[in-house]
Design goal:
By secondary structure, this protein is α/β, with parallel strands linked by helices. The protein folds into 2 domains: 246 residues, Type I PLP-dependent aspartate aminotransferase-like (Major domain) (Aspartate Aminotransferase, domain 2), CATH 3.40.640.10; 133 residues, Aspartate Aminotransferase, domain 1, CATH 3.90.1150.10. 37% of the residues lie in helices and 16% in strands. The chain has 14 helices and 14 strands. The strands form 3 sheets. A 7-stranded mixed sheet has the order 3-9-8-7-6-4-5, with helices on both faces. A 5-stranded mixed sheet has the order 10-11-14-13-12. Helix 2 packs parallel to helix 9, helix 10 runs parallel beside helix 14 and helix 12 packs across helix 14. It is globular and about 70 Å long. 47% of the residues are buried. Bound molecules: ligand P1T. Ligand P1T binds next to helix 3.
Length: 389
């Protein structure tokens, strides 16, 4: 088992912030302890020029405000802006740039983010280069404005050195955005390492109950915030108040859930590593991961995410999925339930085949989101399914 003490210290006051920050009952006339759900799309004005705080729900809503402020604080940021999905957040970030700007994107990212970047960049005159961690600096051009990386990456679990990339970016007056979805603010806070912008698909761990699609961008830079806030209002990629209410409820248990995801995924990872039908496990919390030391330098723990190569090909992967009972074959991740999927045919099927080959997203690469079930039951399920392969 990885030694928790080797990681960065756990963020102080995380659970207290998630439970109380911006949620003081005294701000509501009713003194409600739980932030009341405000469904109204519009708000009465005193006169045409004056209103109390809210005007129209696309521009602002009490439930969204509470959530945005609380999420920003959890990531050690000042400003949070929520979007109706993680991809909505990425769309907004791309819209901060203009014709002729160049964007560098980490080579391994979620399939639809990859497709979004390729399509939007080519349609709107943005230049795009995908680069491995070692090649980021050499990919920089005079017109480069943004470096975007996922860390951890989906699905091959690579770690980007956030501090070094931030230094490279800033030396060249470039912004660094980090999609930190796989690790969560409980375990990783990229702004502390110099990132300008953090992005999460809230649909994953932050909500954690597989019933809300949402995204967030977090920054300490007022200029970036103002641009994103403007884009939120005019592009209208906003989450519904009820979804904000649900996520505000979910984050109260984020710390508890993440601790258990870490424990369960390490046990599952260690079991898989020893299994003769498994070729290789990719789990940043295990010493076998090539970037385990780097991962521990920039995070305080790992989530429930791991990938592994089964011995064999598509036929073996299918047999494995067919025999699972507790694990569900489905896209997405980060919920209380354990999921497995085949990136080559599911989450990353939209990535061109040659790019998938380079990234080693093959038909025997299985991605697993280890949930909160009893570990013995998860391992029993895996043992049985691997026997059938
Ligand atoms: O699904 P959405 O809320 O739009 O989030 C997109 C997204 C962004 N970033 C990362 C790292 C992601 O993994 C995702 C969504 N990923 C899946 C649905 C998946 O199965 O990998």
């Amino acid at each position: 088992m990885a030694d928790q003490n080797e990681y960065l210290p756990q963020p102080q006051g995380f659970a207290t912030t998630a439970i109380h920050a911006f949620q003081d009952p005294e701000q509501w006339d009713s003194m409600a302890v739980v932030t009341p759900m405000v469904a109204s799309t519009t708000f009465k004005h005193y006169d045409p020029e004056n209103f109390k705080k809210y005007e129209y729900s696309r521009c602002g809503n009490p439930n969204r405000d509470v959530l945005e402020n609380c999420l920003a604080t959890l990531d050690n940021g000042k400003y949070g802006v929520c979007w109706s999905s993680g991809l909505g957040a990425a769309t907004a970030v791309l819209n901060m740039f203009t014709v002729g700007d160049h964007i560098i994107c980490g080579d391994d990212i979620y399939g639809s983010t990859n497709m979004l970047f390729r399509q939007v960049c080519s349609q709107f005159g943005l230049e795009l280069t995908f680069a491995e961690a070692n090649n980021i600096e050499s990919a920089i051009k005079t017109n480069t404005k943004l470096i975007w990386v996922e860390s951890l990456t989906n699905p091959t679990m690579k770690v980007f050195d956030i501090k070094s990339i931030a230094e490279i970016a800033h030396k060249n007056k470039i912004l660094l955005a980090v999609d930190s979805t796989f690790v969560t603010p409980y375990f990783q806070r990229p702004l502390n390492f110099g990132a300008d912008l953090v992005i999460h698909s809230i649909s994953k761990y932050i909500n954690g109950h597989t019933d809300v699609i949402m995204g967030v961008t977090i920054t300490n830079n007022e200029g970036i915030y103002k641009k994103l806030k403007f884009l939120q209002t005019v592009m209208g990629i906003v989450p519904a108040p009820f979804d904000c209410y649900q996520v505000t409820r979910s984050i109260k248990t984020l710390a508890l859930r993440m601790k258990q995801h870490m424990k369960n995924s390490l046990e599952v990872g260690q079991f898989l590593e020893k299994h003769p039908k498994v070729e290789k496990v990719l789990h940043p919390g295990l010493p076998s991961h090539p970037q385990h030391e780097l991962f521990k330098k920039q995070s305080s723990g790992c989530s429930g995410m791991l990938s592994f190569y089964l011995k064999g090909g598509l036929a073996e992967s299918k047999k494995f999925f067919d025999s699972l009972e507790t694990f569900t074959l489905a896209g997405s991740l980060g919920g209380y339930e354990s999921l497995v999927e085949l990136p080559s045919l599911m989450s990353h099927d939209c990535i061109p085949e040659d790019q998938r080959r380079v990234l080693k997203i093959t038909d025997n690469l299985v991605r697993m989101s280890v949930g909160l079930e009893d570990t013995e039951d998860l391992i029993k399920d895996l043992k049985k399914a691997l026997e059938k392969v």
